[in-house]
């Protein structure tokens, strides 16, 4: 029997192009699809990602989103040829607009109401790493190589590496990646907690889909609230975070999902969340 959901398939308008959006049951698979450019985050690919985010956000049938890449790369980062044209052409306003668009996209993914999983299929560097850092969960193929890499070409981060990396890794480990520009084995990064699990390449998507389906079975509203609370607590004092959590729970109790979960527990059945 196939594990592919009956309603699997490309979403209308996403069967081809820089970004593919595929429905696998309640899981949205967003695939960067410019393998000849190692999924560099140029104008076309960034526009495709933004359009995919719009489509997932508008579709209540999607409960979890996965971001991955086609070919041998997850994403090799920003389009340095585009950088060269803008900086060399003295178009720093255009460079600023490009950077701001990317920054806003990364923040939107990080704050997305659905859980976001990065399925890191290959090389992940610079802006690709910054994209990966916006995900809630990260699973990587054993063959992937991951690092910051900006410094190798005289670039400094503009999409969040210096802001996010040390929030996910020990400071000195983050410094190593930022200052050497090296690409690390995912097993090394998993040991530091940056990656949830490392899989053989041919098992990555199946594992991620299974994990996503498990998450999708929970309350959509509950997941969104937990994700937001968890993110806020990282940058707040303990007392403030605890008080915010209690207020959120009381507000959540006004909706249907808490009562449904408690009723299911008492009745010894699986919850039926809407």
UniProtKB/TrEMBL annotation:
One Pfam entry name: ECH_1
InterPro entries: ClpP/crotonase-like_dom_sf (IPR029045), Enoyl-CoA_hyd/isom_CS (IPR018376), Enoyl-CoA_hydra/iso (IPR001753)
Alphabetical list of Gene3D superfamilies matching this protein: 2-enoyl-CoA Hydratase, Chain A, domain 1
SUPFAM superfamilies membership: ClpP/crotonase (SSF52096)
CDD domains: crotonase-like
PANTHER family in the cross-refs: ENOYL-COA HYDRATASE, IP11341P-RELATED
Record family assignment: Belongs to the enoyl-CoA hydratase/isomerase family.
The protein's name: Enoyl-CoA hydratase
Originating organism: Tistrella bauzanensis
């Amino acid at each position: 029997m196939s594990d592919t959901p009956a309603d699997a398939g490309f979403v209308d308008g996403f069967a081809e192009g820089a970004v593919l959006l595929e429905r696998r049951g309640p899981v949205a698979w967003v695939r960067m699809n410019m393998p000849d450019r190692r999924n560099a985050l140029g104008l076309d690919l960034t526009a495709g990602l933004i359009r995919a985010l719009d489509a997932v956000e508008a579709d209540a049938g999607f409960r979890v989103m996965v971001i991955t890449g086609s070919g041998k790369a997850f994403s090799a980062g920003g389009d340095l040829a585009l950088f060269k044209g803008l900086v060399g052409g003295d178009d720093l306003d255009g460079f600023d607009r490009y950077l701001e668009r990317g920054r806003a996209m990364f923040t939107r993914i990080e704050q997305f109401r659905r859980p976001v999983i990065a399925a890191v299929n290959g090389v992940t560097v610079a802006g690709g790493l910054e994209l990966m850092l916006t995900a809630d969960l990260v699973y990587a193929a054993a063959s992937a190589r991951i690092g910051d890499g900006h410094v190798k070409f005289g670039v400094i981060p503009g999409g969040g590496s210096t802001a996010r990396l040390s929030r996910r890794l020990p400071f000195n480990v983050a410094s190593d990646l930022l200052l050497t520009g090296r690409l690390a084995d995912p097993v090394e990064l998993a040991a530091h907690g940056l990656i949830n699990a490392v899989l053989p390449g041919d098992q990555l998507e199946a594992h991620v889909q299974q994990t996503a389906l498990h998450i999708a079975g929970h309350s959509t509203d509950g997941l969104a609230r937990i994700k937001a609370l968890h993110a806020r607590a990282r940058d707040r004092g303990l007392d403030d975070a605890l008080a915010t959590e209690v207020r959120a729970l009381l507000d959540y109790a006004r909706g249907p999902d808490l009562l449904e979960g408690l009723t299911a527990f008492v009745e010894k059945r699986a919850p039926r969340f809407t």
